[in-house]
């Protein structure tokens, strides 16, 4: 893989606008009408959200991520996809570089809802 060029410089305040938190993936549910999407039910400590991700073609068994902690962007506007609402975005590693994606996750367990930064 050839690393991509570094993106344009942003300010520290730009970065602080993104709300990235740790959540535990409680369940992975099939989105029947989609050949790509699954629905994650994620526990963020004080609330749960459903987040749609295109994991069906990336993993032989998407359910393998159940019970794992990962990083999620929480302050994106909700988005409708295939008749389902996504309330955030999984922060994964590799997709844009055409590397099989892996979860961005803490090195050891932390409380759900812990913020990045």
Structure description:
- By secondary structure, the protein is mainly β.
- The protein has one domain: Beta Barrel (OB fold (Dihydrolipoamide Acetyltransferase, E2P)).
- Helices cover 4% and strands 34% of the residues.
- It contains one helix and nine strands, in the order H-E-E-E-E-E-E-E-E-E.
- Strands 3-2-1-4-7 form a five-stranded antiparallel sheet, with no helix packed on it.
- A hairpin with an 8-residue loop joins strand 8 and strand 9.
- The two termini are 28 Å apart.
- The mean pLDDT is 95.
Explain the layout of strands and helices.
Layout: H1 12-16, E1 20-30, E2 38-43, E3 48-53, E4 69-73, E5 79-81, E6 84-86, E7 89-90, E8 92-93, E9 102-103
Antiparallel strand pairs: 1-2, 1-4, 2-3, 4-7, 5-6, 8-9
Task: Considering the chains and any ligands shown, give keywords for the structure.
117 residues, mainly beta, 4% helix, globular, five-stranded antiparallel beta sheet, OB fold (Dihydrolipoamide Acetyltransferase, E2P)
Give a quick precis of the structure.
By secondary structure, the protein is mainly beta. 4% of the residues lie in helices and 34% in strands. It has one helix at residues 12-16; strands at residues 20-30, 38-43, 48-53, 69-73, 79-81, 84-86, 89-90, 92-93, 102-103.
Rg to the nearest angstrom?
A: 15 Å
Low-confidence stretches: none
Query: What's the CATH H-level superfamily name?
Result: Nucleic acid-binding proteins
The largest sheet has its strands arranged as 3-2-1-4-7
The CATH architecture is: Beta Barrel
């Amino acid at each position: 893989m050839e690393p991509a060029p570094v993106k344009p410089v942003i300010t520290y305040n730009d970065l602080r606008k993104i709300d990235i938190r740790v959540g535990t993936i409680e369940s992975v549910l099939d989105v029947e009408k989609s050949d790509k999407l699954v629905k994650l039910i994620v526990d963020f400590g004080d609330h749960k959200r459903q987040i749609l991700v295109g994991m069906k073609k990336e993993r032989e068994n998407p359910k393998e991520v159940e019970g794992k902690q990962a990083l999620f962007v929480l302050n994106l506007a909700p988005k409708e996809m295939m008749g389902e609402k996504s309330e955030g975005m999984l922060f994964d590693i590799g997709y844009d570089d055409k590397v099989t994606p892996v979860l961005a996750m803490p090195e050891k367990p932390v409380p759900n809802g812990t913020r990045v930064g």
